[in-house]
Amino acid sequence: MPASNMDSHQVTTRLHVDELILDYLLWFCTSSLLKERRLRLDGHVGKREWTDAAKSTDMGMRLVNSFTQTFRRLHPNAILPDSIALRQRICCFTTILLRRLDATSPTFTRSSQSSARTRAWLSRKRASNVIEDLTSSSSPSSVPIASEFSQTPFAPANLRRNTEEMHRQMGFSCLPAAQQTYWGNISLREGLKEFMVLSSWTCAFNDEVSSLWMETATNYMVQGVLEAYRCEGAKGIDALNECFSWGPTTIGQGGLDDDETVVNEMFGGDGGSVGVLFEEMKTDALLEALPPDNTPLETHLDRLAEKHTWAVFEETLVGGYLTAVISAQPSPVLLQLENGKLTGFEDTDISTLLANAGALAR
Residue 67: how many CA atoms within 13 Å on its side-chain side? Predict the structure, then answer.
């Protein structure tokens, strides 16, 4: 075999091995997060089983973070197979939802792009905010309602109280101090984009958008609003716009990136009826998020948080939607990474790869 062909074969083999390892680590990280969550909510905090699960979760996030960077360095032009790219989306969304950090990002965080995306979406809708977009058949009533958001941000003491309550419902309030450090600063509304993109991918595979998914999506928007104003201290109407600026939009106008194009195609399913039903359900959710006349915004959102608790929403999203998505994925090919074994490849190939992937070799 000519040397050039041999080099090409080795590069291809190395890429294949790296893909298998990345696939396994993404699965391991996601599975560990879900197991640790289950034990935490079941009250096993402090027990040996939970301690082991928590260590596995932290290790899984660190390994994904480290190896993702290694993979990009070794294969800068590689395009992941669809199955692995989907698993990467699942892992990214899971870490954002349950830890507010992105294990697939070099810094575990990300720069917010919600504002720019929201402005572009509203521009295509020819509206200055999502309240104006409620209906095109009546004159905007946004001025008196939007003015309620001038009462933000709420008092710092109230923000701390609300954040503590949210962490309590997630099972984090009773964690040892060392474990509480693994909590990022990515907002729930940033995760909303990952949820939409992940949903559009699974829709492309399954060719179905159910009314249950739409209900989950609109509930997510409400939870994003509650977190933004009651926990993060959002000011003005921008956070409301970011949470509710999703749905079918005009095709052919500028500003749609690849992710938004796929999401828009999802809403265009079934001859456009998917988008119509989603808009109806989103309108109901938005109206519920807005305060009635003579009711302060903070009072209204506090009542809304009591009605739509985080614990119930998280269980619906994780125990229902996310579990179904993960269950539909095939198991990763690589099952014994710890032993350095991979059927079909030489041990020397695996050893060399693990040595290059610093954190994995330790």
Answer: 26
